[in-house]
Amino acid sequence: MEKEKTQEKRQPKYSRKSPSERREILVQAALNCIVRDGPHKLSIRQIAQEAGVSVGLINHHYTSKEELVADAYRHIAASLMDDFGQRIKMEGGTAQEQLLRFIQLSFSPVNLDPKLFRAWLAFWTMMQHSEEVSAVHAEQYDSYRSRLEHLFQEIIEAGTPLRMSPRLAALGLSGLLDGLWLEWSLDPTNFTEEEGIEICRNWLEMIKK
Amino acid sequence: MEKEKTQEKRQPKYSRKSPSERREILVQAALNCIVRDGPHKLSIRQIAQEAGVSVGLINHHYTSKEELVADAYRHIAASLMDDFGQRIKMEGGTAQEQLLRFIQLSFSPVNLDPKLFRAWLAFWTMMQHSEEVSAVHAEQYDSYRSRLEHLFQEIIEAGTPLRMSPRLAALGLSGLLDGLWLEWSLDPTNFTEEEGIEICRNWLEMIKK
DNA sequence: TTTCTTGTTGAACAGTTGTACAGCAAGAGA
DNA sequence: TCTCTTGCTGTACAACTGTTCAACAAGAAA
């Protein structure tokens, strides 16, 4: 009896974290859940279990489930873009080479992952009825596309005229990348990664005047 | 009292339909619900209310909600493709002209509709955990892409060589169309219909050798 | 008119959901 | 050691989910 009480005292049932630490843990747990089970199984209780905390904690740190998901969206989208950005800039090269590397990365297992698609499905669904999530999307997508646009601008400035404006070239490539990513995610047997890269590589070649 | 009873007799509470008629009504109601409220509000009770029937009826005609949704998916996807097909063939013309018309139709209000996107979001979500819905997708997407592929094949046979195989050309165009449709649906302020058409029209021009 | 088939009802069931909140307890500061 | 702040727990709640099924009744057939 005495012994048990002592053990309990020495092994706290839980450890207190600072709000930012706890939010980080909750965001990671939410991402794990979305990625594992998809949007329709995403519940406060699932997330709480994944994070190893009680149900109540989530509404202590976030006013609603949507707020947490929006935070998770921002987190994964930004870290993916950062990852892409770093890998591309690390190896340097011309704008043309960087775009090619961007395409190759888009068709690498990091990005071509059914789990990742499930996460985006959840975000798109929540965008339909959450201003918060919509704002995060607009913010992330803008940065994504302006990055592409800037690279096409560089190509033109380097002396290679294009058949269309950098804006349309970027819109086209992002559409192509997203569309092929979508179709591959819905059914990976549709085409291979190599075919995907081949199609996008052609876009890069063909838009040169 | 006597009068009331007579009225009740003459105005039945409901009318009995043949299974096929009722299924048609249920499918339409399900589509209305998906399109109006999106995937996360799609429930048996909502569909039943929309169809003006009781909750129990749905499980009388379908063994599960998923079966009904799969039926609804097949219905809307097939009718959209039929609509496209008819409009394209009606005006005839070369394969090149038909493809251009396909692109224009893709960026017309019929297809560029946030409501339609909500429906597809629901289907994609259900594909993640329903063999039934997945099968319908595979079936519909195959017919969609093979239609495009066939038109590119015609172009080649008409004497215009392409920079890539009909398969890759079709994959590319469908990726482009789907990707731009996706991005427009997520945020219609991204680009205009004209810009979308312009991008796809360029694909048609550029792939010629 | 009566019978009979079967499409239809609506309550009941056993779950699930997000959120609120009274109270517990971790662990820093005194 | 004790106090006190506040991160955290877990129950309670009201509303919802898909599915089942005994009972009802529409309307064709006899």
Automatic annotation (TrEMBL), chains A, B:
PROSITE patterns listed in its UniProt record: HTH_TETR_2 (PS50977)
Region: Disordered; residue ranges are 1-21
Q: Which domain of life is it from?
A: Bacteria
DNA-binding as UniProt keyword: yes
What InterPro entries does its record include?
A: BetI_C (IPR039538), Homeodomain-like_sf (IPR009057), HTH-type_TetR-like_transc_reg (IPR050109), HTH_TetR (IPR001647), Tet_transcr_reg_TetR-rel_C_sf (IPR036271)
The UniProt record lists the keyword Disulfide bond: no
Q: Where is the HTH tetR-type domain?
A: 20-80
- Molecular-function GO terms, alphabetical: DNA-binding transcription factor activity; transcription cis-regulatory region binding
- DNA-binding region(s), chain positions: 43-62
Keyword annotations from UniProtKB, A to Z: DNA-binding, Repressor, Transcription, Transcription regulation
> What is the protein's given name?
HTH tetR-type domain-containing protein
